[in-house]
Amino acid sequence: MHRTSPPFKRVMLKLSGEALMGDHAYGIDPSVLRAVGEEIVSVHAKGIQIAIVIGGGNIFRGLESSAYGVGRVRADHMGMLATIINALALGEILVRLGAETRVMTAIDMIKIAEPYVRGRAISHLSKDRIVLFGAGTGNPYFTTDTAAALRAMEIDADILLKATKVDGVFDSDPEKNPGAQSFARLTYREVLEKNLKVMDLTAVSLAMDQNLPIRVFNLKKKGNILRVVAGEEVGTLVTGEEQ
After folding, report:
1. What is the rounded CA–CA span in Å between residue 63 and residue 57?
2. What letter does residue 116 receive in the DSSP assignment?
3. Cβ neighbours of 182 (radius 10 Å)
4. For residue 113, what are the CA distances in angstroms to 85, 86, 108?
5. Angle 109-114-115 from CA coordinates, rounded to 5°
6. Domain locations in the chain?
7. Backbone phi, then psi, for 101, in 5-degree steps?
8. Were 22 and a residue from 32, 122, 160, 222 both cysteine, which residue would form a disulfide, CB within 3.0 to 4.6 Å?
9. How far is it, in rounded angstroms, from Cα 161 to Cα 182?
10. Do residues 52 and 133 lie in contact, with contact meaning Cβ atoms separated by under 8 Å?
11. At what angle are helices 144-154 and 201-210 packed, to 10 degrees?
């Protein structure tokens, strides 16, 4: 029987920290962590190289730092550390599920994880290891969305996959507006001009500069990651091409 190859060789998966909370208000839900890990391993088993950037909003959000009496720069540093906790947790689950992983961080902490070096990251991916990037870009004022776009371009990923809790991009919040309209395809310029909540605008601008496609999809639907990398029209595709 003829087997078709997946359309992507190397992908960047962006996960929010909130995706790991499940129904909890804080932290990591073990069952959700394992379910996400199983999804990732199922994709990796197809021979697709996977890099992951994960947020830290389930533990700490720098943008809400004023409530703690913490300045923005220091709060962003705290948020970076939260992303490392998530990366370590997900990396450990992936190992238990049989995958070989490497956690790399933009902030040096060599007793815990490898420092991020582009050449090493690409080498790990080429050796069939799943690479998790922690600490964002290593700089305050930049989101993990921007880190995902930046790392995707640095490792020559074919596509940036933005996992969310809704079915793609809508013209308004579908959780607040039942009549919100979804988009199957968008251009980078449409996202920027309409200020659609795909990723932060810096991340979208970076992707546009290098024509990096972005696929936004619902992580909560089992099997969606595999469907996306198989080339199915799941969620919303953002590219430089007009519809």
Report:
1. 10
2. P
3. 13
4. 11, 13, 8
5. 70
6. 10-239
7. -130, 165
8. 32
9. 17
10. yes
11. 20
- Of 5, 39, 31, 26, the residue nearest 218 (C-alpha): 39
Angle at Cα 159 formed by Cα 158 and Cα 162, nearest 5°? Answer: 160
Distance of alpha carbon 166 from alpha carbon 4, whole angstroms: 29
Measure the CA–CA gap between 208 and 198, rounded to whole angstroms.
13
Q: At 22, list the tokens.
A: 């499940």
Q: Which three-class secondary structure state does DSSP give residue 159?
A: strand
Residue appearing with tokens 């370590």: 88
Q: What is the pLDDT of residues 86-114, one digit of tens each?
A: 999 999 999 999 999 999 999 999 999 99
User: How far apart (Å, rounded) are the C-alpha atoms in residues 181 and 183?
Assistant: 7
Which pTM does this prediction carry?
Answer: 0.93
- Cross-strand pairs, 89: none
Q: Are strands 101-105 and 114-115 parallel, antiparallel or unpaired?
A: parallel
The residues facing 53 across adjacent strands are 14, 133
Residues composing the chain: 243
- E strands of 109-196, at which residues? 114-115, 130-134, 159-164, 169-170, 182-183, 185-187
Architecture of domain 10-239: 3-Layer(aba) Sandwich (3.40)
Kindly state the percentage of the chain with pLDDT values over 90. Answer: 75
Predicted pLDDT of residue 23: 86
Q: Which two tokens stand for residue 238?
A: 């953002």
Whether the Cβ atoms of residue 90 and residue 44 lie closer than 8 Å to each other = no
Tokens of 74: 């220091």
Residue in 157, 173, 133, 188 with CA at minimum distance from that of residue 49:
157
The residue assigned the tokens 């990651």 is 225
